[in-house]
């Protein structure tokens, strides 16, 4: 079945950029999403990208998609302590409404 | 906009009892709601997809008789964990899709804050 992988942990200093990576296996993925989860809470949609796009920027967030390599990344510019959370990538295929989530990357922002 | 609530946020119950969790879309109508389960430090696993007025579609390995889903209106879906056991202890999260969104945005899912179930 579909597999979505992420590195487990990333630590960055406040003010630096963070880059969180994600790889997926389903070549028919149409939409790819990034969600943020703070401790004990649900998921907050940060941004998404359609599979025919290479890049999307939204304020401090930049999403890059390499469809050939099935690689997705989320760059957070000027990372703040409030960005500390777990970040999940997820993909949706075709007209399917199901999302397959990655394993999650815990971002720790240090002073 | 696009707020999803869950009730209760936390519940502790005894083994063998049943627990109902509610998921509501507060400011939009949801054609489809989803129920996920998340174990500590793990990803979300989709349990079932719930469409208003029809039977839920369960993922492989999820017991439909144990996890009863009812989606009686466009703003409410419920998950009932029947005869709960300690291994059912988990964080249950629902999400909903807004029927009013079209195009790219029709795929977006809005998540509730989750319900932590502890079975003793």
Oligomer: heterodimer
Unreliable sequence segments of chain B: none
- The percentage of residues in β strands of chain A lies in over 45%
Element string of chain B (H = helix, E = strand): EEEEEEEEEEE
Count of DSSP H/I helices of chain B: 0
Radius of gyration of chain B: 14 Å
Structural class of chain B: mainly beta
Rg for CA atoms of chain A: 13 Å
Helical content band of chain A:
under 10%
Mean of all residue-level pLDDT scores of chain B: 90
User: What portion of residues of chain B is helical?
Assistant: under 10%
Shape descriptor of chain B: globular
For the largest beta-sheet of chain B, the strand count, sense and barrel status come to:
7 strands, mixed
Most extensive interface: A-B, 21 and 22 residues
Largest sheet composition of chain A: 6 strands, mixed
Report, as a whole number of angstroms, the end-to-end distance of chain B: 37 Å
Poorly predicted runs of chain A: none
* pLDDT averaged residue by residue of chain A: 90
Protein architecture, described:
The complex is a heterodimer of chains A (111) and B (120). The radius of gyration of chain A is 13 Å and the shape is globular. Chain A contains no helices and eleven strands. The mean pLDDT of chain A is 90. Chain A has strands at residues 4-6, 9-13, 18-24, 29-37, 43-50, 55-58, 61-66, 71-76, 85-93, 99-101, 105-110. Chain B is mostly beta strands and 120 residues long. Chain B contains no helices and eleven strands. Chain B has strands spanning 4-7, 10-13, 19-25, 30-38, 44-51, 57-58, 67-73, 76-81, 90-98, 110-111, 115-119. In chain B, the strands form two sheets. In chain B, strands 2, 4, 5, 6, 9, 10 and 11 form a seven-stranded mixed beta sheet that branches. Chain B has a four-stranded antiparallel beta sheet with strand order 1-3-8-7, with no helix packed on it. In chain B, strand 4 and strand 5 (44-51) form a beta hairpin. The model of chain B has no long low-confidence stretch (mean pLDDT 90). Chains A and B meet through strand 4, strand 5 and strand 10 of A and strand 5, strand 9 and strand 10 of B.
């Amino acid at each position: 079945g579909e597999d979505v992988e992420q590195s487990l942990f990333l630590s960055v200093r406040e003010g630096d950029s963070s880059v969180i990576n994600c790889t997926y296996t389903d070549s028919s993925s149409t939409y790819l999403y990034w969600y943020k989860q703070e401790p004990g809470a649900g998921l907050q949609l940060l941004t998404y990208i359609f599979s025919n796009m290479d890049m999307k920027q939204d304020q401090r967030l930049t999403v890059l998609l390499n469809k050939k390599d099935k690689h997705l990344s989320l760059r957070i510019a000027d990372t703040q302590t409030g960005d500390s959370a777990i970040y999940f990538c997820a993909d949706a295929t075709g007209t399917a409404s199901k999302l397959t989530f990655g394993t999650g990357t815990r971002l720790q922002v240090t002073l | 906009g696009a707020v999803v609530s869950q009730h209760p946020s936390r519940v502790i119950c005894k083994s063998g009892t049943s627990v109902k969790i509610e998921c509501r879309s507060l400011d939009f109508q949801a054609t489809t709601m989803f129920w996920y389960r998340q174990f500590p430090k793990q990803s979300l696993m989709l349990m079932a997809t719930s469409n208003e007025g029809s039977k839920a579609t369960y993922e492989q390995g999820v017991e439909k008789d144990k996890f009863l889903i009812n989606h009686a209106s466009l703003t409410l879906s419920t998950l009932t964990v029947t005869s709960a056991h300690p291994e059912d202890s988990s964080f249950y999260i629902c999400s909903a899709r807004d029927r009013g969104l079209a195009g790219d945005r029709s795929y977006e899912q809005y998540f509730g804050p989750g319900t932590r179930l502890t079975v003793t």
